[in-house]
Amino acid sequence: MKKIGFDIGSRNLRVVTEEGILRTFPAVMAADPVNGAPLAFGFEAEQLASRTPGCVKLVYPFESLGLDDSLNTDSETVTGGAASNSDFSGPVCGVTPELLSDFLRYALDNASDRRLHPREIAIALPGDQTDEKEQLCFNACTKAGAREVFVVDTMLAAAYGANANIDSDIVIVNAGASVCDMGVYSYSKLVDFRSVPAAGSAFDLAVRKHVFDKYRISVTSKEAEAIKIEIGSVEPSDSERECLGLGLKTSLGLPRRFRLRSGELLETFEPVIGLISDGLIALLNDLRFEPVKIILTGGSAMLPGLAEALTETTGITSAPAYETDCDCCVAWGVSSMIADGMLV
User: Fold this and answer.
1) What's the predicted TM-score (pTM) here?
2) Cα–Cα distance between 36 and 344 in angstroms, integer?
3) Which of 183, 206, 278, 323 could be stapled to 155 by a disulfide with Cβ–Cβ 3.0 to 4.6 Å?
4) Among 12, 15, 130, which residue's Cα sits nearest to residue 65?
């Protein structure tokens, strides 16, 4: 296969071709808890951690490829000292070309029923990425076997994946796992850009903190994310929803179930929404024109009430790009750019 694209997120890594998304992998690595050496990647890492709990640490190494590393979970704050599967401060937190190359090679080897050896690789990165991190990604792609590497602006890919008309004055808010990237487009050009360290992981962290403060029960990031998806909202609703969660009672070291209501999460999410709103307002204040629309992409774009909250804050109509699968917009955009011959 001549050209393959990658959308590397904090939580997922997607392999794409000109025909669409080939496969999605969890962007997680199983690491030796002593020296941080990588033991397995993706699905194999999750399986290894489930088979040998306590013997490996699950790490999300690509959070450091983003613009801000401040959302890594602080286990002392959230769980009262109980370690989290995704917390690790060892050597692997600094992504090296070798580590990224190994992960890309793993994805290429497992994305289909045969090994992929693309001559050209396209990789999506934030527009204001540092030269050092861009060079890291370039080196990793060449180590993975690529003869030519194309760096794709994440915001542009999100816009293409959302089928947005970038000839008009619009704002793309790409709310991923670690950061919320915001870009303004006018006449097909990126006019302004801002990144806010508040997105999916921040909402999950808020859920974990609320559960621990209320019940003294620690929950994993995955459990917090499941609760957020099931009952999370940032706008009041006429119908109150409830869910049951499972965590660890820290004083006893035993599993315990707890009950949460959707109304409880409204106040819990307010600080995160405040950061996103403040960042968006600051971005809009720098403009000399008023955008006609705000389009939300990324996994957090589907959080109920987020679009309505941003509409109320800015006075500009805001809406998710799609009813579902907004988290695939960047990957779809990279795929479209490959198919349209834009990466030459």
Assistant:
1) 0.86
2) 38
3) 183
4) 130
